[in-house]
Amino acid sequence: MRRNLFFFLLTFLAYKASAQNDLAMAAPGGTITAPVSGCGLTATENVTVSIFNFGSTLPAGTAFNVSYVINAGAPVTELVVLGSPLTSNSRFTYTFVTQANLSVPGPYTFDATVSLAGDVSPANDAFTGHLVTNTAPSVGGTIAGGGNVSCGASGVVTLSGQTGNVDHWEISTDSGTTWLYSQNTTTTHAYTDIRQTTMYRAVVINGTCSQAVSATSTITTPVCP
């Protein structure tokens, strides 16, 4: 009888030792999957985390907190209640109800944590340093220096108000039906001995964003002899 009781106690203690809680937000198990860097991010960006269960299976109804912080600011904390069991060695994805305001261009650093009662490994509860960069969309700007000039005139048209770098200029002498590529990446474009009405525009690209085309400037000349 004592022998059976001894083995029962060993089995019970082994079960208790193995039945441990351990949710991880830290890599390699956990991570922050959203948002990601992009162009023109908004004030309503979803924040999504992936949590790994290194511990025992958690039954439906288990509750735990998840949090995220942007640029070391105030934490956003939400309570998660499992709708179904979270099995051992499986992943749980959660998208916060509270969205992130990333509307101002620039870098944002996200940290996220998970907090489960009885977690035996608090060292893996946090993921830190998820960098998201909001790049402002490309803006073409406007061009000054157009207008009426005499036949054979020379001058410069100048781009301003753009967001991004000039990728190239384009020139048209048929009222914009066709555009010729000019490998000029500065914000000014010179013309010399102009003898027909000519249109100018610049193509601007900011970072990895889509290109933007500036407003058109037209140099108008009389009919040259």
Element string (H = helix, E = strand): HEEEEEEEEEEEEEEEEEE
CATH architecture call of the largest domain: Sandwich
Q: How many alpha or pi helices? A: 1
Mean pLDDT: 92
Q: What is the count of β-strands?
A: 18
Rg over alpha carbons: 31 Å
- Which structural class do you get from the secondary structure elements? mainly beta
The CATH superfamily of the largest domain is known as Immunoglobulins
Describe the protein's architecture and organization:
There is one protein chain. The protein has one helix at 2-18, and strands at 23-24, 31-34, 38-39, 48-53, 63-70, 76-81, 90-95, 106-115, 126-135, 142-144, 147-148, 153-160, 165-172, 180-182, 188-194, 198-205, 212-213, 217-220. It is mostly beta strands and 225 residues long. It has two domains: 2-135, Sandwich (Immunoglobulin-like); 142-220, Immunoglobulin-like (Sandwich), CATH 2.60.40. The strands form four sheets. Strands 11, 13, 14, 16, 17 and 18 form a six-stranded mixed sheet that branches. It is rod-shaped, with a radius of gyration of 31 Å. A hairpin with a 6-residue loop joins β16 and β17. The termini are far apart. 8% of the residues lie in helices and 44% in strands.
